[in-house]
Design brief:
With 305 residues, the protein is an all-beta fold. The protein has a single domain, classed as Neuraminidase (6 Propeller). The protein starts with a strand and ends in a 29-residue tail after the last strand.
């Protein structure tokens, strides 16, 4: 049996992208739909929230303690103390109804993030890599829902999924250059479950949240299913190890598009969950921003043109 606890009283519409901050001993995550950036102080049990000016798909922590947020139309650094946004990059090609989704830093501090059509889920999405100088490079295209970004402990394997294909792929990865090599099929999920966000633990095993699957799956580096953790929610969205010893598995969840009857059967839908799975994680790399902002940085979300 796995001990599962609800953390905080907030309920997310589409909680996503948890990231643990060892410096602050705090957990950050987003609610894509509200749209909100949240921070949990586990020691005091306090959850703070910041309203975002657009849908926010994911985040990373920067070296200067600002938060890199993947908004619908751009990537920006957000200063929690002042509320200021500094624009970093925008895609060269922006199609109608596009937004950023899952994003995460590789072991060298480059930020990888995927885009998607928020309405049709047509294969219009792109996987981008943002370097420390603000250069946004297209790496993969033809994606419906980008998810499952994670790297092996040595940084030589990159995990990525197009969720609607029900598959996670593993890519050979060159940490020095940030280039992808050979791709192999890593894992498949049984519909309706789709692979959503994930994280890699200290042993190099991939933990994957299965949206519409009511569970987390731990995969060995060869793709073998090592363990399944059943959850009391239909739509877990992502997971991240946190706590002083990185031994608490935090799980974000969603309540979107569930009927009143379905919500009544799963009162924890949309809650932040904390699990003791007997495994430790790895600290997440920070975005290594070199400081070359785009012109026209806005002062705050409220005053944003």
């Amino acid at each position: 049996m796995v001990d599962i606890q609800r953390i905080g009283s907030q309920t997310d519409t589409l909680g996503e992208g948890p990231v643990w901050c060892p410096r602050q001993q705090a957990l950050y995550w987003v609610d894509i739909r509200q749209p909100t950036l949240r921070r949990l102080d586990p020691a005091g049990g306090r959850v703070e929230s910041w309203q975002m000016p657009e849908l926010v798909g994911s985040l990373a922590l920067a070296e200067d303690d600002r938060v890199l947020v993947a908004l619908s139309s751009e990537l920006a650094l957000f200063d929690l103390a002042t509320g200021a946004f500094e624009r970093i990059a925008r895609p060269q090609r922006v199609l109608p109804d596009q937004r950023f989704n899952d994003g995460k830093c590789d072991r060298q501090g480059r930020f990888w993030v995927g885009s998607m059509n928020n309405i049709t889920r047509d294969p219009e999405g792109v996987l981008y890599c943002l370097d420390p100088h603000g250069k946004l490079v297209e790496m993969l295209s033809g994606i419906r829902i980008p998810n499952s970004l994670a790297w092996s402990p040595d940084g030589r394997t990159m995990y990525f999924a197009d969720s609607l294909l029900h598959t996670i792929h593993a890519y050979a990865f060159d940490p020095a250059t940030g280039t992808q090599g050979a791709k192999r099929l890593f894992a498949r999920t049984d519909p309706p479950a789709i692979p959503d966000g994930g994280t890699v633990d200290r042993d190099g095993y991939l933990w994957s949240a299965e949206y519409d699957g009511w569970r987390l799956t731990r995969y060995a580096p060869d793709g073998r299913i090592d363990r399944v953790v059943e959850l009391p929610v239909q739509r877990p969205t992502s997971c991240m190890f946190g706590g002083p010893s990185l031994d608490i598995l935090y799980v974000t969840t969603a309540k979107q598009r569930l009927s009143e009857a379905e919500l009544a059967r799963q009162p924890l839908a949309g809650a932040l969950l904390a699990l003791d799975v007997g495994v430790r994680g790895l600290p997440e790399p920070r975005f290594n921003w070199a400081g070359h902002p785009l012109p026209g940085a806005c002062a705050s979300g409220e005053g944003r043109p």
